Amino acid sequence: MRAAEYVNHDAVGLAELVAEGELTAAELQAAALEATQAVDPQVNAVVETWPADDEPKPGSTPLAGVPFLIKDIGAAMAGRRMELGSRLAAGHVARADSFLVLRLRRAGLVTFGRTATSEMAYSITTEPVLYGATRNPWNLERSAGGSSGGAGAAVAAGVVPLAHGTDAAGSLRVPAAYNGLFGLKPTRGRVSMGPDFDELFSGLAVPGSVSRTVRDSAALLDQISGPEPGDPYFAQRPSRPYTDEVTRHPGRLRIGVLSQAWGGRRTTAPVADALSRTAGLLESLGHQVEEAEVGLGADWEEYVLANAHLFTANLAATVDELAAAFGRPIDSSTLEPATLAGYHYGQQVSGAQFVAALTIRNRVSRSLARYFDTYDILLTPTAPELPTPLGAYAENARTLDGLGWIDTVFDRSPFTMPFNMAGTPAMSVPLTADAETGLPIGMQFAAGYGLESRLFRLAGQLEQASPWSARIPTVWAGNRTGH
């Protein structure tokens, strides 16, 4: 199979071809490597590839034999580098598989490389000094989002049909929106973070994926979800596989719409127009749609401050551990300006301030939970603006302290983070594009704790009603040079 044919199938479709004996996993990997070589010099999404493991048994799972990429953070694979997009961790090799990677192996996915991330997953753009900027396949002068920007660009350009990512503040959903993909942040406790961690970023971060079809993300979540020994908590198992939910009718849903973000950031005209069209589509499908007022349970300023304390204190601990392990200095030779500023800020966060931040996290969780007693779904834009130009964050990073950096990131991505604080599932769906630039626009749908099934049912309905698979970016492995 050549790349031009390979990109016409999603992951479930490729696995079916392997199960039927029409192709082998090795042939699929060869096609994936051909696709990588065709497009990655332009988008810079894949930082390393390696020979695949032994071929999985065909048909053993709905994803057996499918080429796969893991992010350069959050998925430790024994004997492979995981450098967190940082010069401080350059050359780090994982000693053992994380529980997530063990589940990826059991799913029969053929992991052959890792994708770019912003340094320490600490930005919503992927422009690390270590490996350089990842470019958006729809417009090479634009950001692919972050921190899972490498995953987003790789999937959008046709390297793989789905890829691993993590999400602590929108790091899956923003790249999904910027790259015209489906991306779902699961419920906190849905996927184990063990054995090295019980939580990442104090429960703000969770693993997930970006994909070109809804059923691929559903199939992957079926394979990686569920508790592991020692997990401090876990989300209740669904009553049926998520892949079954994709084709089930969602029923008539009560959907509240939040058009302007918390904190006062105004949604730009192209995104506001896309939101209006999405609301109209939902009404045409029989759903009850109305404007909603949704409180965070905290003032925006104290909410941002709480996040700054949680993010930077966790960052400081990670940086100290890496510096000690590698014997490297903590300065501008090893860390980028935003990360270094966050580190210094985090060093000053007291234990009392950290506990107070967890109290804010609880207040946000309780407030959003009450909202989901009234509405089945909350609809917002995923991001308030189109994909940002590369370099847009660089100047700010040189002048801001740790709190200022968090404030800047949240100003650019105000809709996503509350659902990380609340631990509830949320997805970005690529329902439309900007008429003038052709850039994709993602719409975010959030549901109550543990209700990924509801999101998958709605996503499946939307994919049928307003398909996005025919829209392909300028850089596309199916034709090497794009169109």
UniProtKB/TrEMBL annotation:
Annotated stretches, region: Disordered: 225-246
GO molecular function terms noted in the UniProt entry: hydrolase activity
Entries under Pfam families matching the protein: Amidase
Classification via InterPro entries: Amidase, Amidase_CS, Amidase_dom, AS_sf
Key words, A-Z: Hydrolase
Domain Amidase intervals: 32-455
Family: Belongs to the amidase family.
Name this polypeptide is given: 6-aminohexanoate hydrolase
Species: Streptomyces qinglanensis
